[in-house]
Each structure stands twice: as C-alpha cells, then as structure tokens.
Sequence to fold (141 residues):
Amino acid sequence: MIVGPSLIVVCALHTAVGVLGSVQELTEVLADGWVGAFTGPDRAVALWFLMTGFVGATAGLAISALEHAGRMPWSVSLSLLVIGLLGVSAAPVSGFLAILLVGLVAVWRSARQTRRTPAEPSRDARPAEGRSVSATDAVTR
Fold:
C-alpha cells in the first residue's frame, strides 16, 4: 500500500498549508459563528484548502482499502494522473506536483497488477459442483 497513504499525506500537508496561511480568516470565521461565514475571496480560499484536503484524504482512505484488497483500478489511477496533469498545467509550482507523482505511482501499480493477474477462467471452464474431472478434462484445462 503506497498510493492511498501517499495521497493522505499530500492532503494533510495541503490542509496544514491552508490553515497556516489562513489563520486570520479562520479566526474571523469562527468569531462569526462558522455557518455561512465563508464570504469573500480570502475566506473562500481558506474553505477551499480545508475541504479539498478533507475530500482528498477521504479518497486516500478509499484507495488504501482498494490497495489492501490487492486492487488498483485503472479508473482510479488514471483519474489521479489526469488531476495531477491538469493541476500542474494550471499551477506548475504547487502541490499538484505531489498529486502528479501519486498519480504516476498509481498508474504503475495498475499496470503491474494487470501484468501479473491471470485471466479468470470462464464459468464454463470450471467443473460443475459435485462432478469429478476426468483425466481428459484436466489435460485440456
């Protein structure tokens, strides 16, 4: 397991940077009662850092569960790669470089999994329950 935990670390760092860079805005939001207090561009940036960090960490937990089950679906790895590429193209010097790295590792994991996972035999190729397999059947399988 490396992709999920790596994404969690990146998102935790993202949230920490957001909190440290928005201490004044977050203090004001708390003083204003939190609910409905994220008004104005500076407060919106603080909210963006918090929520994207939390959503990304949640995705990291889900990816960790997939990895624990021995899976890294192409849909997940390619999505991470595309997010990283789009982010780096929009903001080349940013945390998106870390997401791009996580995406590349995820693609590597998907490719590695695809190469070593043998094809599942079809249902017809398996002997029926309770039926013995003849020597001829065993050789042809």
Observations:
- The two ends are 34 Å apart (CA to CA).
- Residues 3-114 form one domain.
- The chain has six helices and no strands.
